[in-house]
Amino acid sequence: MLPIFCFRLRPLPAILFALALATPAFSQSDQYLRTGHEMPGLYGFDSSLVPPQGLSIETVGVYYSASRSTDRNGVGTGIAGQVQHASMHPTVTWVSPWKIFGGLYAARLRLSMGANAQNPRAENVGSDKIGSGDHYIEPLALYWSAERGAVSLRIGSWLASGDFAADDPNSLGKGFDSQVVTLGWTYRFDDAQLWNYSLLTRYSSHGKVEGRDSRPGDDVIVDWSVVRKLNEKWDLGLVGYGVFQTSRDKGSESAAELGYYGTAGLGVGARWSVPWANGKGSLRIYQEFNSFNHTEGTLVAGGLSFRH
């Protein structure tokens, strides 16, 4: 889902870009459900813990592959083909010393560079493009600390800055803006703080598609993780996500009659310290299930973060 990124992933290093090229399409159609920008699996462990003050840089890669497409009832369409997507997301986060309503203030900028459509689906794959997708800016992020956890509230926007043409289903950009509200919670189970769980909910509303009488329906992504700290270097855990469209597409050139889309993913993840970068590395692998009006595949997300 990276069509909303609900269905897809982005890869780690550039080597995965090659895997997303020259892949066959399931089929071609002018009318399909348009998903939003937000991607499941993008956030990993401890998604709402208060980050350290100062400047930090993270690069997240996503790779998604699916050979099954489902209808509105979750039944396989039987269409043969392979959907693939690969993208990199360099992210800069600045955490200030200031507080707003008691929450530590931060801001974030995320760039997107990918191969094939940003959120590929059966109707819009097969491109051999590599280039810039839409970028994300988060001017307001607040983090509140608690004795055993933290809460976060973030407000941001996806900009229609990527390569897009209304008559090209393989455009790297989505062709519309999205407004995103994110609410997260991380809680530590035990006094030793060896176990914790995180829940992050992202709600997106979308603008009109450039050059079309179509406005994608709102959607929500829920990412979760249950993590065990093994030692000072390693964390392991279970990870998962759910993606759901909450309102129908609108407009004479939309496919609102198809209903809604959704999918869920379940997997495992690991995180380890990277001393030379004063940061951490991460890897998460998800298998999707219970998809409807969506592809159903495997998502791999990983990254490297370091502090200045």
Descriptive notes:
This protein is an all-beta fold and 308 residues long. Helices cover 0% and strands 51% of the residues. It has one domain: Beta Barrel (Porin), CATH 2.40.160.40. The protein contains no helices and 14 strands. Strand 12 (262-274) and strand 13 form a beta hairpin. It is globular and about 55 Å long. The chain starts with 53 loop residues before the first strand and ends with a strand.
Layout of helices and strands:
Elements: E1 54-69, E2 83-100, E3 103-110, E4 113-115, E5 130-132, E6 135-145, E7 149-159, E8 178-188, E9 195-206, E10 219-229, E11 234-245, E12 262-274, E13 279-292, E14 295-307
Antiparallel strand pairs: 1-2, 1-14, 2-3, 2-4, 3-6, 4-5, 6-7, 7-8, 8-9, 9-10, 10-11, 11-12, 12-13, 13-14
What is this structure, in a nutshell?
By secondary structure, the protein is mainly β. Helices cover 0% and strands 51% of the residues.
